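Two proteins were folded this term; both appear here.
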Amino acid sequence: MGGSKNIVLFGQPGAGKSSLINLMAGKNVAKTSSDMRSCTLQWQEYPITFDGKSYNVFDTVGLEEPQLGIPQYLNAVENAYTLIRKLESIDLLLLCMRAGRLTPTLQTNYRLFHEFLCDKKVPIVVVITYLENEDGEMDNWWKRNRDIFDERGVHVAGHACITAIRGNYPDRHEQSRTIIRKLVEEVTAGGQGAWKGGDSTFVSFMRKLKGLLVGKEKPRMKKNVASRLAKRCNLSPDVAKELADRIRDDTVEGAT
């Protein structure tokens, strides 16, 4: 990786993740599309450089409401799990959300990535997009809504209120580039040290499930993983069970 910082970017479809990558890069490196159905079904890696530092940004599949398409949702989470297991280290989680309500799906995505997949060991920041029409400073949105994040247990190491679309607001667009770059640089330079995905509690659960297949673990282990997913990530029991099954199978097939 040559000293580059690894950033995992996630959020719902339509939040402007590709535009955010282009904003950070200072050029168009990620394709954008208003058609959510055309979004990639696999994560994409974008090496970018700014202010003399290198970053690898991994854009994950947008995580939509599970009820709107359970197979697609499971595919997206499984792909995210595969990416995190693959990476040698992770320096930052970047939650991208469109200005509006802190929905249950956003809270679920936060818990899946920060708590479940990364064991609360990776700093996470939230980027709120589409604030080009915000009255006064764009950061006013955060001042109005930060208490809601705290009340709902969505704790972040930092935030950025931005617009990733140049449009009729070039000054705000350029200001947004400065804001997001400064945030990324400050949080990744905090000295916490990159987290290695193999240390995850979730990965540990999956390894125990692998043992279950060869008779080394008790059957309740599989049930416990699904139960934890359902409780902490607000998934239905059926979705949680199928997700645990699919990631377990992926872990076993990828084992040597």
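Next, the second protein.
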Amino acid sequence: MTTIKNVAVVGATGKIGRPIVERLLTSKLFNVTVLTRDDSRKRDLPADVTVKQVDYNSIDSLQSALEGQDALVSAMAFEAIHEQKNLVDAAVNAGVKRMIPSEYGNDLMNPKLAAFPIYQPKIAIRQQCEKRVTENPSFSWTTIHNASFLGPDWTLDFIVDVKNRTADIKDGGDVLFCATTYDDIAQAVIGILTHLEETANRPVRISSVNTTQNELIAIAKELGATDGWNLTYSETENLESEAFRRWAAGDHSEEVIAMFINRAFIGKGWGGYFPVRDNELLGIKDMERDELKSIIKAAIDR
């Protein structure tokens, strides 16, 4: 039976990558190597990881760094997703058994999202992984779909800014969506690497909690944020149309990207809510309401 011992991580100092590295180390199950283009980043990493400097434009450089690695976990930032192309080829060439590409977020297996331009780089990398599996059966992949991110920071602000008491309520505010903490995404990585057969060549769908915008506002009010709310209202169908119009006109701003994302995770039936999740398989516990309240309280108080 294939087991994973040596794990390489890309994007290890980012918001997703850092908890992944920490969880890999605390599990005591893996030897962790971090690939980075900037060797000075090693000062930002735990002492018990191996750091290898690489050139992401060179398959040879990446392949050399990946020799002897059983798994590759990518936490590359949104704007760098396309750089995983060389990583996939290098991983296959180096004999990596499992790759987790950076496809965190909404369920991109939902055909409705395939037309969204912001997701094309992620979809292209997954399709490349699928192709390489057919050519090299010893290679495999898993993607992690967690819908919305959740923490007492910009991730909550994107949905409802409880500190400044502002929100744009989409589709009435009662559409159920999944939200996931960085720690639970890291646990999903552990779960994948210890359940290779069950997670091979497919996405896993996870969440810490299922919630709505209106529930988040209600909890904030329970915690004392009762007055002074500035709420606007929009329909995600209109946001989608406006996003496509502006994108076609050359506007690829964060505002337009946010319109696509909001349609993807709040639009009912668009991939932001998972009726079936892989939480139990991966060792992820459902968040209690008091834990959600603690996150919202931390966001209010920051």
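The CA atoms of residues 172 and 233 lie 7 Å apart. The mean pLDDT is 95. These notes refer to the second protein only.
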